[in-house]
Backbone:
């Protein structure tokens, strides 16, 4: 998941959802050492539980900073209109159905750019491996590293 302020000057750490709670490739420090927010579930999908947990932590962060924010959220089933948690620093506005591609800045090029540069880095890694006649296996830690660089 990607989130940033309106001007793009403040980007929240990416939310990456994997299948394993603590993959071995993360090493001793586990998820604490990652430059992203990492969580997991069986299918590695966004769901309302992951979303609400992320929101609760974000709300705590902004309360500590004594900030209030307005968060625009797309109309995804994983982003319920009625939350199980109470937010004090965040007010949520859900975009109307079928308008995300027209109203949401993240869909207007930011996500596309991120995917483009991420894929470009992956292809570059594979080509380097081919040139060296080696096999390249992309694990989740390498994917996260490439994603944050993108």
Residues:
């Amino acid at each position: 998941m990607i989130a940033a302020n309106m001007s793009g000057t403040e980007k929240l750490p990416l939310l990456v959802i994997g299948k394993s709670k603590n993959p071995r490739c993360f090493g001793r420090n586990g998820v604490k050492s990652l430059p992203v927010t990492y969580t997991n579930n069986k299918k590695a999908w966004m769901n309302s539980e992951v979303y609400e947990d992320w929101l609760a932590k974000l709300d705590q962060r902004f309360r500590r900073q004594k900030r209030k924010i307005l968060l625009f959220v797309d109309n995804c089933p994983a982003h319920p209109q009625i939350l199980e948690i109470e937010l004090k620093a965040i007010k949520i506005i859900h975009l109307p159905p079928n308008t995300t591609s027209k109203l949401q800045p993240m869909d207007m090029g930011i996500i596309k750019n991120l995917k483009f540069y991420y894929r470009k880095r992956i292809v570059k890694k594979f080509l380097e491996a081919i040139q060296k006649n080696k096999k390249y296996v992309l694990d989740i830690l390498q994917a996260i590293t490439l994603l944050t660089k993108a």
Observations:
- Helices lie at 48-64, 100-103, 110-131, 140-149.
- Strands lie at 15-18, 37-40, 69-73, 90-94.
- The longest strand covers residues 69-73.
